[in-house]
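Input set for joint prediction.
Command: fold jointly, output tokens.
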Amino acid sequence: MTVNPSGWRPTAPANEQGEAQTVTGNRALMLEEPLLFEIGSTEQTGVDFDPPRDGEGDHAKHGGGGAVQGSDPPPSGLRPATSPSRGGARLGGLERARSIGLPGLSEPEAVRHYTRLSRQNYAIDLGLFPLGSCTMKHNPRLNEKVARLPGFADVHPLQPQETVQGALQVINELAFWLLDLTGMYGVAMSPKAGAHGELCGLLCIRAALEARGDKRQVVLVPESAHGTNPATAAFAGYRVEDIPANAAGRVDLNALKARLGPDVAAVMITNPNTCGLFEPDMIAISEAVHGAGAFVYCDGANFNAIVGKVRPGDLGIDAMHINLHKTFSTPHGGGGPGSGPVVLSEALAPYGPLPYAAKYPDGTYKLVEEEDGADEHPDAFGRMVAFHGQMGMFTRALAYILSHGADGLKQVAEDSVLNANYILRSLADVLDAPFAKSGPCMHEAIFSDRGFAGGLSTIDVAKALIDEGFHPMTMYFPLVVHGAMLVEPTETESKAGLDQFIAALRSIAERAKAGDESLGAAPIYAPRRRLDETLAARKPILTYREPQPAEAAE
Amino acid sequence: MTVNPSGWRPTAPANEQGEAQTVTGNRALMLEEPLLFEIGSTEQTGVDFDPPRDGEGDHAKHGGGGAVQGSDPPPSGLRPATSPSRGGARLGGLERARSIGLPGLSEPEAVRHYTRLSRQNYAIDLGLFPLGSCTMKHNPRLNEKVARLPGFADVHPLQPQETVQGALQVINELAFWLLDLTGMYGVAMSPKAGAHGELCGLLCIRAALEARGDKRQVVLVPESAHGTNPATAAFAGYRVEDIPANAAGRVDLNALKARLGPDVAAVMITNPNTCGLFEPDMIAISEAVHGAGAFVYCDGANFNAIVGKVRPGDLGIDAMHINLHKTFSTPHGGGGPGSGPVVLSEALAPYGPLPYAAKYPDGTYKLVEEEDGADEHPDAFGRMVAFHGQMGMFTRALAYILSHGADGLKQVAEDSVLNANYILRSLADVLDAPFAKSGPCMHEAIFSDRGFAGGLSTIDVAKALIDEGFHPMTMYFPLVVHGAMLVEPTETESKAGLDQFIAALRSIAERAKAGDESLGAAPIYAPRRRLDETLAARKPILTYREPQPAEAAE
Amino acid sequence: MRYLPLSDADRSEMLRVIGASSIDDLFRDVPAELRLKGPIEGLPLHASEMAVERHMTALSRKNMVAGDVPFFLGCGAYKHHIPASVDHLIQRGELLTSYTPYQPEIAQGTLQMMFEFQTQVARLYGCEVANASMYDGSTAMWEAIVMAHRITRRKTSVISSGVHPHYVSVAKTMAKFTEDSLETALPELSAETDAERLIASIGEETSAVVVQYPDILGRITDLTPIAEAAHAAGALLIAVVTEPVALGLIKSPGEMGADIVVGEGQSIGVGLQFGGPYVGLFATREKYVRQMPGRLAGETVDAEGKRGFVLTLSTREQHIRREKATSNICTSSVLCALAFTIHLALLGQKGLRQLASLNHARACEVADRLTAIPGVELVNDAFFNEFTLKLPVEARPAVHAMVEKGVLGGVSLGRLYPGADPLQHGLVIAVTETVSEEDIDAFETALKEVVR
Amino acid sequence: MRYLPLSDADRSEMLRVIGASSIDDLFRDVPAELRLKGPIEGLPLHASEMAVERHMTALSRKNMVAGDVPFFLGCGAYKHHIPASVDHLIQRGELLTSYTPYQPEIAQGTLQMMFEFQTQVARLYGCEVANASMYDGSTAMWEAIVMAHRITRRKTSVISSGVHPHYVSVAKTMAKFTEDSLETALPELSAETDAERLIASIGEETSAVVVQYPDILGRITDLTPIAEAAHAAGALLIAVVTEPVALGLIKSPGEMGADIVVGEGQSIGVGLQFGGPYVGLFATREKYVRQMPGRLAGETVDAEGKRGFVLTLSTREQHIRREKATSNICTSSVLCALAFTIHLALLGQKGLRQLASLNHARACEVADRLTAIPGVELVNDAFFNEFTLKLPVEARPAVHAMVEKGVLGGVSLGRLYPGADPLQHGLVIAVTETVSEEDIDAFETALKEVVR
Ligand SMILES: Cc1ncc(COP(=O)(O)O)c(C=O)c1O
Ligand SMILES: Cc1ncc(COP(=O)(O)O)c(C=O)c1O
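tokens >
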């Protein structure tokens, strides 16, 4: 390992503040960390094994210890099982001979490597994370605790059902409350994330249409929709067409009506939409769509704004996915795992996938799989995943729903909307808010880059927020707003926290309008300055390659 | 809360690098955090209670929820016990009327407050923590896991003994291995930390002396001893006198012999001593002390250097405390909890305190308390603590000992000594190592500030190490070395980590000798620059006081 | 409510600033008649943490815990010991509560770990590149089939009968809608895999051959001939690995010529969790990277020339390419990938090899012990840590009978292939390092009793 | 070995740099004949994490878990529900694995939390200042007696019969060696505390009066008269609080004139842990701060004028003053103090008051239910969440008999005061928010049966 693990060299351009450089490249608590492959060794391991017996001689040389040596009192747990004389003899000649090239770390090195790396991340636990459309709310620690109860964490998906009644009850109870909160008829629990839920919903629609021998080809998607919507429609074999928006940032009802026809299978609406606005014509939209023999898919990623306030089932929606990792607080974990249950209308429920957890009058629970599917759920369109869905997210989401309860969830929606409108109105004088005149927003506030001095754009504002100690908002999405800044504070932010954010964004916005070039250099205090994404894409380096001896020397 | 929670004001002296200041005072991931009392409110709480029943109306107004409202399936766990109509009626008129002034935080605010604060700390998990005499080694995560098993974490100290056999077995097994590793005769498990163990040891000695009607008044302690040694001797009612050291940094045997006499109760030796040196005359010392009718107390804080290599019992020691939070890896936690079991010679064992966990031939365990003490342990000098000692540390230390085993612990001592000598020899050319000529050191290397340019001292080197991403070594201790720098790497550091540390310290040492004034400004990258300790001591502010309206305004 | 920081005073002050008279004012776009008047019906009001914890604990106790009994289940999910430090580290707020690393300057932790993960997966699979995770093994397999379709512009894939039946149903379900055609078959209780059938059925319409290694019955066979046959016909070989620990001991699919290797990563770092969340692994050849689904972390430099990492090749992805994306995946399974990379970094090659050989040795012992029971036959010639027994009785009732004796004694093929009569006597048994001598004794005793 | 990063190659390279021929070369100061030749005898060789975890788990399962049964024990250790976030936070490496904050520039996290803790403790106790923690309540009480001795230059303290017997034994043990004299007595099973005896026995040799509040029998009484009497005689009042939750509902000792208030903080954030580690709380008047033992965090500014915190008034402490220090304490119980401050910050005044009133209401209910059992009498008039019953039978066997019925039904005074006949029928019962309706039913049934 080189003394200075970062790429930094004294010859590299000294940064603006002409900082005193350190020998290590570290800056006190901001520590540079080399790659695993630069510090680990294939001869090192952070996992010990109990001593070999005959036949395990194979890894005797790897030095398992002799925990069984005479000990008084003899630690009962410390006796490994013996193993047979024939170990290693039944691999059909497929032994892996070559080095795999996987470095190992001792536990102290590993804890330090990952602790240091983690400290280079921003997270909800550090501060406001107003990433629009992502609902980065606080993740309750109780949820982490219950998900780790051995009765949930250490249970195999194929255990006989009499041994997993509690697990099935969790799925069933959560399904029950999701239906209660959405006013829908059925729910598919197995989708692994929102996009997977979208796919599940569209497949239900397609199955329903095919059941009536109807081969429709087109799915209509607003321009403002999240990328997963068109991608999913295409993945499900549909042709995607745009729905135009009106000046108020909503679906243009008349344009939609005009386009509807016998070739349209479904309309995908996001409500509240990605501009953070509720679709006031939702019922008219649903009626028009149903009138044309199509179905209404609702992207429920923004359900947080209305949970406990209005039930999607009352809006004429046929299918909607719910991101448990957004509205129901399961941690995002740097990019998943998520969970995307899909609630279904009476028309679509029969086509939902297998398996599902059913409750029987005698209080027992059953996982309905292919075997019983034929009788109990004959029209199921199929199966979306191996096993039964994201159990680890179900336990967390159920704990969250029971913790908040009916009163708490209503408050969640109200506070998330209140926080967003507070930001919207507190900054409307310095930032262009294209839809502000059309009234209040829902859970997120959207601004444009209108009025910024030439050469400065949304990204400069975003990066300057980093220096101020905040995660930037969603940038340049949705596409319908120029240089969009989509700010979703969520309900778990305090007023004091919002006030600090508003003050910071206000000053940055003023600098952007005044043409303060220094914004272009932001961030200056983060672990890294702006990164060269073009270089990364032009010649992709996607895995580590050991340096040639020459380089290694340095 | 003010927008800028730190004391920083634009008017304050801009720091050396003339950094661009932020509105919030934050620097990207280095976040300023106000005091709990500045962000919390006495009306806010992060703990919910279940709904009031008659008589608990008392806190009904605090809005407990109605978890019991009709729910299907009824979450069984969600029913609180009812309470009587007389609640609050039996306080003997002592109700607390006045506001307590304790602010509360919601869970999201609390998680953020403490996460941000934690990020202002250095820790073993971040990097090398070579604090001499403190043995800051890696704390295995397995230990944290086992200490939290409900069977250990959720057991009451006064449960009937038939319900805590496993807990008693842990104490007994750990005691068994500590005796095995030290070659001593008995062990007192209840002391809460090293200093408490010292006290326990001296009280055993005093009890033994009094048992033979011997009222000795003096305890001899080397100048190089840790402050707790003389403090403990005084606390136990003894007069403290110095033992001089020789040029090689060891106890001056002849001077000691000369001082020994009928008034000397005990000699407190640290071995390996606080200069990181083994006392080669230890046996001669013990013989001399015993010859004079006194006892040998050994400060075992440095046991890590010799564990599994030599048994203190073979060195003629009568009592020695073991810091489980050093040698046996229980986490230091920012200043405890620790645990300081004391191993005793045959001469002192009868006087050890109550209670203790005894194993009986039938395989059962008994906690011997005052009740049975009279029969089973009549000479016990008394009791050191309520209950039975640091169970949470015992489980961790036992897991550690079993994990390392006999071979692992020997390796621990060897690697800790190897690492220290590697540092000693790698820096001997740039730093003055007063005892280097006398041979190898044990687990820690000591340097002096000899050769630093005028105006620069040990503290400047220490603070510069902070910028380089390391915790400083122990400074100005022991007192016998001028500007002492006591470096204890421990065995859980990799060679690569040591090489980086050596390179950093080398460059700083060179700057110190060259008189580089900028060292005086270090640290510049830490959450705070050097703090004014004189001001803190001159007018102590030890608790928060709400600002007067005037100040509050700003 | 403990998760909500706003006080009533804050709320009214904020409404004042906004210029709204009431909170409902802000919901004015929601048709008034549909707005719920009070807390929604049915759901109880909020509950204390203690009450919720007790409810969840009560539910958890209705399940039989794998770690509490002799346990021998596999078939796509394996019980391995996970070092305590893994869970400790992934619970750090900076990893647990961060989002997909869209802002690389303050997401280097996740990005570097993704890059390290990609490298580990590629090396474990013997491939050139890997992505930063898919949902799980079953969805990864479908994405691989679609990817092969894109690369070869062919629509027919031949799926080995040794592929996990859930994986096959997922593929069949999707194929219905994408008009891909899949050739599938039921496995047979024989030591032979269907390699020959596969090779025979490769044609010029074939986009890919899909094989599982080790397969659903625990069988392992050299993939080289299949790879050669596929390549000769211009088709790809897709290999599916449900037990990554195996690759510490046996050849990687990449070494044997597989073009795309996908699989389940659950075995390493993730745990059983009743089936999810798990983590899909996905690796392939460098030349196909632009056809690959999922997130990719790539190396670059920052404005000061320091090395750093970013999400890259996003032009493959839905948020840029929308309907033209290689997949609709967005949120994947990064936290599980972090657990995987941490556990694998702790193991390293040395530990992984020890773990794998310990698993195999233990499995061999169990196979010997159980086949000594009269009437019990071993189906496999070769296997890693999982093998199939042919019992003298139907396996499914036998499994339930063993539960009565407190033993979780494998997965019956009847559970996986309901109605497939020739398979009803098949019992698939997985043996890992967590199996103790006492566990083996208990299993042996229980099985003896239920087969007699 | 998994905790040791050095490889054999590293070791020999390092020996080369050092110029030593072997590792034993470095141990040359240790008499050769005493150096162990190989691994020490007796102790087994190293073991896998899995094996150690299994051994420890097996031991843990030999204990009856408080949370699994109806549980009513107190007497200095109380079972309260601790929010999951508390343990999550104190497990952050930056808090768990840091040392005493000697380098304040990189220890502001611990230091600010200490400062916040000191403020919370002072306010809870109704005092001006508090330190950053002692080992536990019992050692804190002894330190308080020594401190009073220093302040008053008197050596006799009068200890209430209501003080926890373990605390008294600790004090007696120490007093033997410091020549302090302590006046103590056994408690009586009456509603009255010994306040009058205490007042009566105050003389001009008295350094301090020591009372526990609520006391060992759960009794609470106004401390004001005792404080006045003590002050009139130039003595101090030391109050001991073993259940801090009580102070959410009843007057603080400080409000009633106590000069030093010490106690056990375990109830808040720490948990039962079979008796340790716990955390000692220590508060007093500003004017006595320089006589106070233990660490203190104080506010100051850094070179840029930013507010920061440091350890201060160290001239009281052993590392500076050595034999003249106010105490020999060094490592105290900071991590438990952090758990305490986090839990108390989550509660806040509002939550603490709710928690305390819930505890009291529940305790009142249990007292009513149990005293309805024929022959069972309530000793207390006033109490918080703990009270004493006089049973018609000896309490100690009754407690064991209840264990047979799966109920942990309180602490018998026979356990605390072996041989003190008048107390043998006394049973001390603590009731907290964790007690459910079902627990109360089970307890009532069990007690009925054992007293009949
Ligand atoms: C509006 C919208 N739709 C769909 C998705 C996709 O959900 P997921 O990332 O869980 O697949 C997201 C999440 O980013 C979203 O914001
Ligand atoms: C040499 C020495 N003796 C005694 C002690 C006191 O131990 P503790 O802090 O556990 O009371 C220490 C710890 O700092 C020490 O280093």
